[in-house]
Write a structure and sequence with these properties.
The structure holds two protein chains of two kinds.
Chain A (H helix, E strand, L loop, with lengths): L5 E6 L6 H17 L4 E5 L4 H6 L4 E5 L10 H8 L9 H8 L1 H10 L7 E5 H7 L1 H11 L4 E5 L9 E3 L5 H9 L4 E6 L3 E9 L6 E2 L3 E5 L6 H5 L4 E5 L5 H17 L5 E9 L4 E7 L9 H8 L4 H15 L1
Parallel strand pairs in A: 1-2, 1-3
Antiparallel strand pairs in A: 4-7, 5-6, 5-7, 8-9, 8-10, 8-12, 10-11, 12-13
Chain B lengths: L5 E3 L19 H9 L5 E2 L12 H19 L9 H12 L10 E4 L1 H13 L5 E5 L4 H9 L3 E5 L1 E2 L2 E2 L1 H13 L4 E6 L13 H14 L3 E4 L15 H4 L4 E6 L11 E4 L2 H15 L4 H13 L2 H26 L5 E2 L7 E5 L6 H10 L2 E2 L1 E2 L12 E5 L5 H24 L7 H4 L3 E2 L5
Parallel strand pairs in B: 2-14, 4-5, 4-8, 8-9, 9-10, 12-17
Antiparallel strand pairs in B: 3-11, 6-7, 10-11, 12-13, 13-16, 15-16
The chains are: A alpha+beta, B alpha/beta.
Amino acid sequence: MSNQETVVVLSGGLSHERDISLRSGRRVSKALRDQGLKVVESDVNAELIELLRNLDNPVAFPTLHGGVGEDGGLQQALELLHIPYVGSTPSACRRSFNKAICGPLVARAGLVKPKSVVLPADVFRDLGAKQLVGAIAEHFEFPIMIKPVRSGSSLGATKVCSADEIAQAMVSAYSYGDVNVIEEFIEGTEVTVAVIEPEGEPVALPIVEIQPLSGFYDYTARYTAGETRFVVPADIPDGVAKACAEMAISAHRILGLRDISRADIIVRSDGTPFFLEVNSAPGMTETSLVPQAVSAAGWDFGELCAKLVGNARARG
Amino acid sequence: MEPSRHDTRLDSYLDFYADRTHGLTVSAVRALFSVANRPEVVSLAGGMPNIADLPRQALGEAVSKLIRDDGVRAMQYGAGQGEPFIREKIVEVMAEEDIHANSDDVVITCGSQQALDLVTRTFCNPGDVILAEAPSYVGALGTFQSYQAEVVHVEMDEYGLSPTALRQALVSLRAGGRAVKFLYTIPNFQNPTGITQPLWRRQELVDLAREEKLLIVEDNPYGLLCFDDDPIPAMCSLDGEVVVYLGSFSKTFAPGFRVGWTLSPHAVREKLVLAQESATLCPPVFSQYAIAAYLDNFDWRGQIKDFHDMYRSRRAAMLAGLAENMPPGTTWTNPGGGFFVWVTLPHGLDAQAMLPRAVSARVAYVPGTAFYSDGFGSRNMRLSFCFPTEEQIIEGTRRLGEVLKTELAIRATFGLEDDIAPKLGLQGPANDIH
């Protein structure tokens, strides 16, 4: 990159994950500055377009979690403005962020995932919640997970152990959005696989095993240092690890993701990996998983970020 | 070659932290307030005073003069108890609430929040009990928790803290062998409820404290922000020997200077000075000079009257907005001053669970559970009328009303309405605490 070029690290926004996004943005910005790049940090607000237009040859590095940063809205705007950016295209973001779209796509391609159904709030009103809750209880074996389809960081997610708890969990999840996913709960080892494309081909990084001390990898466990034990590479058999890596790369390809993604997977006690979800804009904070995987792979985090910026610039 | 396995909790010092740091974790609720800072969101959450109308030009000149003429002293270390001249000024300020104090008994602190810290560290061992209103100021609860004291909440009625409930709690705790160290109370426009103790109630509480040998910590940041009546005499004016009084310039002038104070019985004052010296050597000297310059050269009483007019209008907007927009079954307090209105939601609603929906609707509040140390308050929220404009307050209450109605509809769909509003036929202002 020439000295004239500026990387605009985008973070914040108005999603429920704004706080985490700001932390991710600061971490990426520092890493890029350490690589000698000129960096401007910006919130995603009404001043952003003017900022981008006033810079010479900007490259955007979105680090937004949730909302327009992950549903493709921001990326679409960047394309309209002809601003090169790190990360996935608008349509790939849309496919991966919405669990109602992502789940069937990866299942159709043959990835094993927990049994799930997607239900908007309206359907309970129209058909009667009591009957529908009863149908859910008949369809699944407990426990189940109830979560909003468009949210991250486990916000609004509840593990439900009996039919009596379904209504309350549904209401809690609907506080984050109008559509929920109800999913079979798979007991097992929780792992995550980061996929990067430094040279144009997706590469799986060492698998990170997640052991939350509370037993549930919720918001507190994710973002408070000390509340979760991470094992890298995961303490799972080689064959299972290989299957997890292949699953993450397959999901990356099936959904058309680009540059970087992170697949969350549960390995059942018999060694079967179950695909849970994929993130097109994974967290980059001090307690996030991708930076740990990058480090375990022997990459310098800043070098990788700079490499992705260079790739985005080359794509134009 | 297989890479070596790395097992980490991302914190090298986990085995070194003090017990009192347990529970200091990131929370999803707190993270949501990050969104509340965006201008698109009407925040009825924060308790920031509106200081935009202070005479900033003149203040700037006064601060310049201070540095030019007195900078060598103002930017030097000072006395642990605080500078004598500002303690004299504070005595004048306290006289507005009938407190006739000796400046020797005043200790300057870094805001009244530090006063809370000094008092708690001076009196409390781990496991000691502090009595506090139900609900009470979240910042005080955090300080008490950090010293591993247990907060026992005492019921309030429309006149504030209930002496009957206080006596019952005290007797019961002492019978159980518990060490009750003090009663923490905010008698004026209480945070979060906005309720004020009338003089007769203060007298009852002071009499009870004297009789039961119970120390009262009287926190009074809002006492001069009385919009409708004259200030009520402070509890410490009724008996200074049973009260440690906490005062502040944060609401009557500006919080950025971080100047508060304690007024306490002589023996307690000695301990607080030593505690202050060990904590900070001395409270911020420059801020003390700046506050003294303000009190000397500006019409601070007139400024407080201007604050009254501004906050009175905002309170009116808040009460009108609530009356216009809240669904049946919602009640709220009607404060005579201060910053806050305490809202009680229709049965079945949970203010904390509803907060993400509110943030999506671009309005923020503080869930009631923040003001209890024992998990109560889920049906409550604190709304602040101090910082947003009248127009923003009206819009914020409109958005909040929509959020409540949507939440009620969803809960009704799932059969979780639990005896909601229309059956009760209640709506409007009420001193309904629980």
